UniProtKB/TrEMBL annotation:
GO molecular function: glutaminase activity; lyase activity
PROSITE patterns assigned: GATASE_TYPE_1, PDXT_SNO_1, PDXT_SNO_2
Keyword Ion transport: no
Gene source species: Penstemon smallii
PANTHER family: PYRIDOXAL 5'-PHOSPHATE SYNTHASE SUBUNIT SNO (PTHR31559), PYRIDOXAL 5'-PHOSPHATE SYNTHASE SUBUNIT SNO1-RELATED (PTHR31559:SF0)
EC category name: hydrolase
Keyword line: Glutamine amidotransferase, Hydrolase, Lyase
Name of the protein in question: glutaminase
One Pfam short name: SNO
EC nos: 3.5.1.2
Active site (record annotation): C78, H202, E204
Region (Disordered): 225-249
SUPFAM superfamilies to which the protein is assigned, alphabetical: Class I glutamine amidotransferase-like
């Protein structure tokens, strides 16, 4: 199996290294025709406006849209999530082209600027049920986007509390987020829709490879997803998840 990693800009090397840790070869993708040689694609984090400009320059958008449309698995992390979203807000003046396909609205720098980057434990019931290991995951958020709204066909895999005071530096009015049935406001940070997976954080910057192996299952077992909720925890010894590769000083 060959998994392509869009290698225009951003953390593509880190994804290739993470794929290697789960025994899969990652192939750098820079040209439209290279997409024909891979079964799946990861669109990494980076800077979505720059990445979009480079993708436009290399005439990649039509091929990327086709890849999504024919049902090949695609995982977008951070800027990659913005790429996959049908709608993005908070973009730079002039906006940026999107690949689209993922029925959601993303706010580009929901969690603020580089200075507001942070790490936090997030609850990942679906991933833990399929991949074993602890029920939470160390989320590394770097100038991270947030998912404001999703369509009915989108499965929410993780969300985080969004108390307005915590995101005071965000250019998004967090007060305007919908309350979840009267409880605290939450912002969605990981979703799945058919062949598409998207995370606002960076699993490739941690040693925990469960998101990568979850994505590989989407490649190997594309039709098994509906059975997921009944999957029990793996009886094998869960691998050790230790420190993230990326650590704030
Ligand atoms: N918010 C950034 C953007 O607009 C993405 C940040 C990231 O990928 N780490 O591109």
């Amino acid at each position: 199996m060959a998994v392509g990693v869009l290698a225009l800009q951003g953390s593509f090397n880190e994804h290739i290294a993470a794929l290697k840790r789960v025994g899969v070869k990652g192939v750098e993708i820079r040209k439209p025709e290279q997409l024909q040689s891979v079964n799946a694609l990861i669109i990494p984090g980076g800077e979505s406006t720059s990445m979009a400009k480079l993708a436009e320059y290399h005439n990649l958008f039509p091929a990327l849209r086709e890849f999504v449309k024919i049902g090949k698995p695609v995982w977008g992390t951070c800027a990659g999530l913005i790429f996959l979203a049908d709608k993005a807000t908070g973009q730079k003046i002039g906006g940026q082209e999107l690949v689209g396909g993922l029925n959601c609205t993303v706010h580009r720098n929901f969690f603020g600027s580089q200075l507001q980057s942070f790490e936090t434990e997030i609850s990942i019931p679906e991933i833990a049920a399929k991949e074993g290991g602890p029920p939470s995951f160390r989320g590394v958020f770097i100038r991270a986007p947030g998912i404001l709204e999703v369509g009915p066909e989108v499965q929410v895999l993780a969300d985080v509390p969004a108390p307005p005071e915590k995101y005071a530096k965000s250019d998004f009015d967090v007060e305007s987020l919908k309350d979840n049935a009267g409880s605290e406001k939450k912002v969605i940070v990981a979703v799945k829709q058919g062949n598409l997976l998207a995370t606002a954080f960076h699993p490739e910057l941690t040693q925990d490879t469960r998101w990568h192996s979850y994505f590989l299952k989407m490649v190997n077992e594309p039709n098994k997803e509906e059975a997921s909720s009944s999957t029990s925890l793996s009886s094998e010894d869960p691998p050790k998840y230790d420190l993230p590769v990326y650590q704030q000083g």
